[in-house]
Design a protein that fits this description.
Strand order of the largest sheet: 9-10-11-8-12-13-14-15
Number of domains: 2
Number of helices: 11
Helix content: 25-40%
Largest sheet: 8 strands, mixed
CATH class of the largest domain: Alpha Beta
CATH topology of the largest domain: Dihydrodipicolinate Reductase, domain 2
Shape: elongated
Number of strands: 15
CATH architecture of the largest domain: 2-Layer Sandwich
Structural class: alpha/beta
Length: 320
Amino acid sequence: MSLDLRPAIAELNECREREHMDVNLMTLVAFFEDEAVGKWMRDRLAALAAKDPARVIVMDGTQPEGVQKVGAEWVELGLRGSDPETLRSAVASLSLPQAPIVLVWAGLRAGEDPRFSALSPLAQTIVYNSSALGTDESGLRQLVAFERAHPEMVVSDVAYLRLAPWQESVALFFDGKNVIRELFDLRRVEITSGSAAEAYYLLGWLASRLEWKPCARHRFCNRFGTEIEFALAHEGPARRIRRIALHSSQSHFVAELQPGAPGTIVLTVSGAAEIPERSHPLIDAGTAALIERAILAGSKDRIFHDTLAAASEILAQAEQ
C-alpha cells in the first residue's frame, strides 16, 4: 500500500513558513512497535529536538497504516503492517535534503528485520538500544547480526553508552603504580545487572582492552594462557549495572551502588593492594543525552566496535 503523504508534507511546509524555521541540523527518524517504548521515545525525541533543531519523523508500528499527525517539524505515521518499501519511501519523502538522517530504532528485531535493512542505508547514523525491549541478550544478538551483515554502517548502542561511569570506576581502581600490575593478574570477573546487554558490553569492554579471548564456557584466556573466570548475575533495575567485582590472585576490586544512595558508586579494594574506600557519582545522563552523544560522534567508535566484537565472541562461546 502506498501512503498519501501530500497532506502531511503541505502541513509541514506551512508550519515552517509560519514559525520561520530555516535551519534543521538533522532529520530524526524513530521506529517502534511497543506503546510504552513509544511514550518515552516521544519525550526524549522532543527534548533532543528542542536542543538541536531537527525534523522528527515518528514511525509508529502500533498504529494502523494511514494514521497521520503533523505539528511544527514533527510528523507521526501509523505504520503497523507496512512493508519495507513503504517505510523507506515515507522517510525519503518527508526528510529534509540538507539535514542528515539519524535513525533511532526500537523495533522488536534488527538483524532479521527487512524494514530495518530498508531504512538503515538512508541514515548517516543509527542509534540502537539493545536493552529497550527486554532484559535478555536477544537485542544484542540482533545488533551483532546486523553489524556482521553491514560493517560499513555507523551504529551506536545506548546500552553501551550508559556504561561510562562503570568504565571510569574500573579505570580508577588501577590508576596507581602500585596496583597497575594487578590488572594483568586478574583471575575472575563478576557483574550484576538488571539487563544482559549492559553486562555483556562491560565484560566485552574489559576483554577487548586486556586482550582476553573466550577459551571455554565462562572462561577467558589472556595472551599468556592464564584463565579468567566470569560470572553474570541478573538482579536490579532493567538497563542498569549494579556491581562489578574484579579478583586477582591476591586482591579484590569491587565497584557497587551504595545501598540507599543509587546515585553513588562505592569503590573498595582489599587484599594485597588494600586502598581506602572511595566513591564517585553515578551520573545518569538520560536517554536523550546518550542519543545526542551518539549523533555527535558522527563516525565509527573503535572502542565500541572492539567491545561489540568481544561481546559477540562471548555470546558465541555461550552457545557451544
